[in-house]
């Protein structure tokens, strides 16, 4: 999905914000204090459920380079601690000891409080929650082939359903999130204007909805589907399925002579001659 320019830019901005608020023990303490204040405020106005294990104070998770689940945890933690993160960034903007600290915090604050950032934040979280089970399963050394194939199929189906039916729920969720925090929500019917220096070169006159729905939402999901289809081609999936009949697990429970014959005839015809 990072081949999509807005997605690549999103993760760069996310990394900047997370690195700033997690740069020191002092920042961690400020983040926790801001989160406690936010929790107390929400409880006071009955917008937060009270109970054992709920409303625990956490910290912003850094995303690792390879672990997909670490990216998901980073997105979840930012959503849960968004207000606290903004509070810490605003503190750094006014009280940072160097101009670079203040400047970086200001840039990060502007970035994460934009509608596009919030939109992609929720979009990527939803996509990663769909693919997380598959990613976790593939990282385990001992993996049942049939279970893995089932997860691949289920993941593709769920992402396709999100492509077909997920736009309105996602947009509603993002608008609610932004509305509660006073973040400007664009009129989706107006013309979309590209970033600095590109508006004059922009030939197509399309709307904000086209940008977010086609260029971001659909393009990102299609990229994810393409990646899954590339890594798990139909012929490879069939090979794995037929090969599972030779699995030693549970005393050859998956043994099927018809599948063995099909495996030999279709994938190894030169190795088995009558």
TrEMBL record:
Tagged with keyword Transferase: yes
Keyword Transferase listed: yes
Q: Which UniProt keywords apply?
A: Transferase
For this protein, the Enzyme Commission number is: 2.7.11.1
Q: Which GO terms describe its molecular function?
A: protein serine/threonine kinase activity
Extract the InterPro entries matched here: AtLOH3-like
Q: What is this protein called?
A: Putative zinc finger MYM-type protein 1-like
Q: Which organism was this protein described from?
A: Davidia involucrata (Dove tree)
Domain of life of the organism encoding this protein: Eukaryota
């Amino acid at each position: 999905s990072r081949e999509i320019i807005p997605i690549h830019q999103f993760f760069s901005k996310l990394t900047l914000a997370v690195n700033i608020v997690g740069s020191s023990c002092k920042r961690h303490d400020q983040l926790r204090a801001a989160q406690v204040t936010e929790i107390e405020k929400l409880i006071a106005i009955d917008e937060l459920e009270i109970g054992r294990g709920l409303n625990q104070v956490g910290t912003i998770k850094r995303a690792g380079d390879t672990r997909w689940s670490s990216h998901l945890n980073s997105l979840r933690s930012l959503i849960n601690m968004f207000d606290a993160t903004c509070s810490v960034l605003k503190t750094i903007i006014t009280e940072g000891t160097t101009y670079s600290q203040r400047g970086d915090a200001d840039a990060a604050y502007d970035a994460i409080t934009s509608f596009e950032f919030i939109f992609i934040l929720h979009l990527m979280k939803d996509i990663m929650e769909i693919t997380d089970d598959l990613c976790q399963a593939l990282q385990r050394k001992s993996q049942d082939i049939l279970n893995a194939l089932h997860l691949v199929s289920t993941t593709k189906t769920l992402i396709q359903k999100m492509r077909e039916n997920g736009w309105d729920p996602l947009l509603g969720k993002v608008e609610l999130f932004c509305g509660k925090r006073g973040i400007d929500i664009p009129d989706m019917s107006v013309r979309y204007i590209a970033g600095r220096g590109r508006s004059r070169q922009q030939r197509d006159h399309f709307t904000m909805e086209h940008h977010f729905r086609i260029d971001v939402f659909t393009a990102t999901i299609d990229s994810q589907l393409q990646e899954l289809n590339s890594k798990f081609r139909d012929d490879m999936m069939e090979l794995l399925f037929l090969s599972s009949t030779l699995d030693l697990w549970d005393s050859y429970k998956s043994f099927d002579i018809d599948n063995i014959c099909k495996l030999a005839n279709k994938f190894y015809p030169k190795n088995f001659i009558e």
